[in-house]
Amino acid sequence: MPTFVLPSSGALEIDGLTLVLLVVAALAAGWIDAVVGGGGLVQLPALLLVPGISPVQALATNKLASIMGTSVSAATYYRRVGPDLRTAGPMALTALVGAIGGAALASRIPAELFTPIILVVLIGVAVYTIARPQLGHTTNLRWEGNGHRWAAAGIGLVIGTYDGLLGPGTGTFFVIALVSGLGYAFLPASALAKIANFATNAGALIFFVPYGAVIWGLGLAMGVANFVGAYIGARMAVAKGSAFVRVVFVVVVGALVIKLGYDVVQDLLG
After folding, report:
1. Where do transmembrane segments lie in this chain (predicted)?
2. pLDDT tens, 186-205?
């Protein structure tokens, strides 16, 4: 199998089979992200398998690939669903700011401090969603006017900071916050989440690009695949509606719980 030297990656090399697997992972991640978020659960661990890659390089390259997918899914949702810009605007703005701050902390704060907390939150989210089968079927907003905007801005800031710092599951967190916190149905929540997720990816890249952490050749190759997966996923979600998005949401949250639970156990045993 041929070996490729990746542009802007120094001595980092990758064989052809690994590159193919990474592209396939990016395709799947784009689809998952477009439907309900959580594509980082697939894409980031795949990047960490590249020999010689650092965690910061993997995180930065993941953001480059992801922003290509979130751009097309956000545009597709905007045209077909028409998300509420009163929510999207303040949430995306604070998410951008939070992601820049989170990215600046990414190389300084050990991820193991956050993983157990996130695991507990996700288990609670899964139980809450399954126990309330009507949750997210229809939109019933809990606030209007400035109260709604401030709540959206708070969601953007908190989750944006998390995305810049760690990342996996960001879109999923946006969706559950919009559904359970603001009262949106799953489909419009996914549409809004894509806009905010685009902003968090952009915010992280604002920090990572000058830092020199992005592996451009690999990130662009994966980004094309992520773009294709996101386009297919967004169109499927729009066609099938909130019930379909809810099912995918529960599956993705379950996968996140398994992945993070495994990480916690490994840390305890290690």
Report:
1. 12-32, 88-106, 113-130, 150-166, 173-193, 205-231, 243-262
2. 999 999 999 999 999 999 89
Which pTM does this prediction carry? 0.83
Strand partners, 164: none
111: pLDDT strictly greater than 60: no
Count Cα neighbours of 166 within 13 Å in the Cβ-side half-sphere.
20
- Residue located via tokens 């992005």: 214
